[in-house]
Amino acid sequence: MTTPDPAAEGRRRADELLTALTASDDAAADRLLGGLTEIRELVFVGAGLTAVARAEGRALPAAQRAQASTRQLRLGQLRDANRDDPEGLRTWLRRSGEEVLFIRSLHAAARAR
Q1: pTM (2 d.p.)
Q2: How confident is the model at residue 89 (pLDDT cuts 50, 70, 90)?
Q3: What is the 3-state secondary structure (H, E, C) of the chain?
C-alpha cells in the first residue's frame, strides 16, 4: 500500500474547497476544513490554493496583478501568525479560497466587457 503524495492530496483538497466555495456550499467547505486536523495537511491545502491564486493572478492586468500580489503577502502573514494553530490555519485557507474566487471574478468581469 502506498501513501498518497501529500502535495497531490493538498491540491485535490484545494480543488474540493474551491468547488464548495464556488457553489456557496459553506457546509461542505466547513466539513472539509474541519476534517483537516494536522497542520501539515492544512499547509499542503494552502500551498495548492496559493499556486492557483498566483497562476491565475499572473493573467490579470498590471494594476490588478499588483493588488493580488499584495493580498497574497497579507495571506502569507495570516498563515505565519497562525502556524501552530489549526483553527487559524483554517481561517487562512478559507480566505485563500475566497481570494481565488475574487481573482476569477476579475477575469469574468474583464471578459464581459
Answers
A1: 0.92
A2: very high
A3: CCCCCHHHHHHHHHHHHHHHHHCCCHHHHHHHHHCCCCHHHHHHHHHHHHHHHHHHHCCCCHHHHHHHHHHHHHHHHHHHHCCCCHHHHHHHHHHHHHHHHHHHHHHHHHHHC
